[in-house]
Design a protein that fits this description.
The chain is of the alpha/beta class and 274 residues long. The protein has five helices and 16 strands.
Length: 274
């Protein structure tokens, strides 16, 4: 399998959709000019609202989704594979899906994944998030074909559920994406160690584009987009500012790591003794 160049874009999306898309166009175009063939965007890169209720809008209807149309043209114009980290997609009248989408260089939707694990948490400093109030969870794993090998799709909070990554790897994935908008507090404590752990456990490359910066209403996202190899080594770190990171990926590195530590083949049946 041939080597390729991947990019993870890092942005600070606010509530003005077109401003966010203009910035994404700038960053994707720049990454493509540097030779990136697969470009990954963060979770909700097109708009980040204070409440998930605000995503319940006809502009996010899957059949005529404005952001999807923009991304299709972006993939075509730059001749790249594009991961739409995630976008809100209207589901009925009261909920949306948090959907990650893979586009080919001809702008076609090759696959999509709806986030399974929703962010319902109470953080020590008083921050409370209830993603499940307005977001409907997915119910299927997705492994999609890229020219360089199979890709497993996940989104943000999925990162904390290690069995999902093991299953993706056992289903053929050698690359896994984790587009995110991690809060600063949880990101500082957990982001790097979790991303590296998922790479090591699954013996996979991890591409983790993340949002950064502070919104007008105070929400701060951690940044530090990461590209991590199957040995758990960080190949690139996006820091805290908008921009993008790149790395050259050798798909054969996955096979080498999995041969050295074949843990994906060692599922033993056991029982709990209580």
């Amino acid at each position: 399998m041939a080597k390729f160049k991947v990019a993870c874009v890092q942005n600070c999306a606010g509530e003005i959709l077109q401003d966010n898309l203009d910035k994404i166009t700038e960053l994707v175009t720049a990454a493509a000019k540097e030779g990136s063939e697969f470009i990954c965007l963060p979770e909700f890169y097109s708009v980040l609202h204070r409440s998930d209720y605000e995503y319940i809008s006809e502009q996010f209807n899957w059949k005529n989704h404005y952001v999807l149309s923009h991304a299709k043209k972006l993939a075509q114009d730059n001749n790249v594979w594009l991961l739409m980290g995630s976008i809100p997609v209207l589901e009925g009248y009261k909920t949306v899906r948090n959907r990650s989408v893979i586009l080919s260089p001809d702008g076609e939707v090759r696959d999509y994944y709806d986030k399974i694990h929703l962010f319902d948490v109470n953080i020590k400093d008083g921050q409370t998030y209830r993603e499940s109030d307005y977001v409907q969870s997915g119910d299927r794993i997705v492994v999609s074909d890229l020219p360089w090998g199979k890709l497993g799709l996940t989104v943000c909070y999925d990162l904390r559920f290690s069995h999902l990554y093991r299953l993706l790897a056992q289903s053929g994935a050698i690359f896994i994406t984790i587009p995110s908008a991690f809060t600063y507090k949880t990101g500082k404590a957990h982001w790097e160690v979790l991303v590296r752990a998922r790479a090591i456990e699954s013996g996979s490359f991890i591409f983790a584009p993340s949002q950064c910066g502070v919104r007008s209403w105070g929400r701060k996202t951690y940044g530090h987009s990461l590209i991590v190899n199957p040995w758990g080594e960080i190949m690139a770190d996006g820091g805290t500012d908008e921009g993008f990171i790149t790395a050259e990926i050798d798909p054969l590195a996955t096979e080498k790591c999995r041969k050295m530590i074949p843990s994906l083949l060692n599922d033993n049946i056991f029982r709990a003794s209580i």
